[in-house]
Specification:
The protein is mainly beta. It has four helices and 22 strands.
């Protein structure tokens, strides 16, 4: 009886083995472990001499409703900001403005000289600019008046306010426009433009949980013989920053907040067989702290996107990329490389930018594919399986 049972068990096992699929389907292949070297191939940018190219480019960003308003010059960097008060009372048209004092709270942010000179003039904005969409390259000097309506020059110490006198006629026009939108002089806000003697860029609060820190305009008015004090503290604003490409260190690419320096990496995948299954596509790149300026509390995440238009540099399919230690970034891009390899999307490269570009002027210098030390260049390793 035991002999018969053993024969039956062997026969059942043979039948079961013969009924298994010799060629697993795509779903099964996708889950083949990376250490199964009998089925899995590797493509490594270092050992397989894969060409990686880069394009460090500037794409100006809108900083509307950033927490900080930045103004000043630092070497080849420059920054100005716009500020507009709204929800202004309609009850003081045709009144006389006796004084107007603007209070700005320094937010503790500087780029890059903490003790440098801050020097700027204030001008009326004469164009109807959309603060929510404008960027540095969409405004010009013709958008601002030629007569200064306020100024400041000096060193801004920590935890302090600036008290700035604003031209009375400017504020009078705002009051008249609030009461009658057909009034000839519109309230387009004011522009804070740095002077050449400015040697640093400082950040002042636009938004803060402490309402005492946000911009406040105190206006003393006289109407019909009565003197009143108005406090305006509802405002919108943004900063406009720029720097030439010469700020990019050699053999690095630069990811720059506030301005919008970004980068595109492109990969020569000619050694990758067509229509394989991408089990893993891991990209690493290395931060050069010595060439970077990263202030305390800045978000160090990067955002990786798949380029969808090589002309406009539009991108999609975004991935967060986190720093693993003090210098090394690591991100898995399986779905991007699978789309390229299968022909669903053209291989136009990936974009890399900072996660929170609009908050300040911090920059991240990354070792490029041309850097002399190959261990610090971007490194791509693809694990893939051939389809049958």
């Amino acid at each position: 009886m035991y002999h018969c049972f053993g024969m039956f068990l062997v026969a059942a096992m043979l039948i079961s083995f013969q009924s298994c699929e010799n060629n697993p389907n795509d779903l099964g292949l996708s889950f083949i472990p990376s250490d199964d070297t009998t089925s899995v191939r590797f493509l490594d940018s270092e050992t397989d001499s894969m060409t990686i190219t880069y394009d460090n480019y500037r794409q100006y960003i809108n900083t509307y409703l950033s927490d900080l308003l930045l103004v000043g010059n630092y070497q080849s960097y420059q920054s100005s900001f716009l500020l507009k008060f709204y929800q202004i009372t309609q009850d003081y048209d045709s009144s006389e403005v006796l004084s107007a004092s603007l209070k700005l709270r320094y937010g503790g942010y500087y780029f890059k000289d903490e003790n440098g000179q801050t020097d700027f003039n204030i001008y009326n904005v004469v164009s109807d600019l959309n603060y929510a969409t404008i960027t540095y390259d969409s405004v010009s000097s013709s958008d601002f008046g030629s007569k200064s309506v306020g100024s400041f020059s000096g060193v801004v110490p920590d935890s302090t306010y600036l008290e700035l006198t604003i031209d009375n006629n400017t504020v009078r026009d705002w009051l008249n426009y609030s009461a009658d939108t057909s009034y000839a002089v519109k309230n387009n806000g004011i522009a804070f433009l740095p002077n050449m003697s400015s040697s640093t860029i400082k950040g002042f609060f636009l938004i803060n949980n402490n309402v005492e820190y946000i911009p406040t305009l105190t206006v003393i008015v006289s109407k019909n013989g009565d003197i009143d004090t108005l406090k305006l503290n509802t405002s919108v604003g943004l900063f406009l920053s720029n720097a030439p490409a010469s700020i990019i260190p050699p053999e690095r690419f630069l990811l720059q907040n506030g301005i919008g320096y970004k980068n595109i990496l492109k990969f020569d995948l000619s050694k990758l067989p067509a229509n394989v299954i991408i089990n893993n596509a891991n990209l690493q790149f290395t931060l050069d702290n010595s060439e970077s300026f990263i202030s305390s509390g800045t978000d160090k995440r990067m955002v990786i996107g798949m380029v969808t238009d090589s002309t406009t540099k539009d991108d999609s399919l975004f991935f967060d990329c986190y720093i693993q230690d003090s210098v090394l970034y690591n991100v898995n891009l399986n779905s991007v490389f699978q789309r390229w390899n299968s022909g669903v999307m053209p291989n136009l490269g990936i974009t890399i930018r900072n996660a929170d570009q609009k908050e300040n002027l911090d920059n991240f210098a990354i070792f490029s594919p041309l850097y002399s030390d190959p261990n610090k260049r971007p490194h791509l390793k693809i694990t893939y399986t051939l389809r049958n």
